[in-house]
Amino acid sequence: MADEDVILASVSTIVAVAAARKCCVWRESIRYLGVYLISSKSLKCSLSDSKRSFYRSFNAIFGKVGRLAAEPVTVELVKSKCLPSLYYGLEACPLSSAYFKSLEYVAVGAFTKIFNTRSKEVATSCMEMFNFPLPLVCISNRKSNFLRKLYVSHNISCRLCAECQFYY
Question: How many Cβ atoms from other residues are within 10 Å of residue 103's Cβ?
């Protein structure tokens, strides 16, 4: 490939690469199947859009139901309508303890609003009483189910990925 075929132009974080008369835009993050991947040395996922989606659905539910419905009803609505948007695709992403703390903060924040308290301990005990698992437990279960399905897959690439993940 000749030097004139490749043009690199850097504008802040966006780099346009032109090769063979096709332009490709390099970005800090991309959305693939609803999961935002961040450019980094290793695979990283962004939780900001997941958290935004959770807050949007939680505020919609809480705005309609608010203090009119009993707390168990609100908790079940949050479990069925809000948590899927928060946990979507996270079983395939490598998550550090900081990510889990961030997700726990979101869940505890929802419970502090539902039960009208400012105490994290009260919200956490309410989560236990209503069988609302912490994000670490829930995502770990989802990840093990995901890897189990990959392992029994007939696709050799999927099986190889699952076997590599079991060692980490």
Answer: 23
Radius of gyration of the chain (CA): 21
What does the block give as tokens for 108? 């505890």
Nearest to 50 by CA among 100, 101, 84: 84
* Per-residue pLDDT tens over the stretch 19-54: 455 666 777 877 878 777 787 787 788 888 889 999
Instruction: Output DSSP code: residue 39.
Output: P
* Residues 23, 16 contacting (CB under 8 angstroms): yes
Between CA 85 and CA 88 the distance in angstroms is 5
Confidence of residue 2 (pLDDT cuts 50, 70, 90): very low
Q: What is d(CA 95, CA 12) in angstroms, rounded to the nearest whole number?
A: 27
Q: Who contacts 8 (Cβ-Cβ below 8 Å, separation ≥6)? A: 15, 16, 17
Q: What letter represents residue 92's amino acid?
A: A
Q: Where are the beta strands (DSSP E) in 28-100?
A: 29-32, 35-38, 44-46
| DSSP state at residue 29 | E
Is the pTM of the predicted complex or chain greater than 0.85? Answer: no
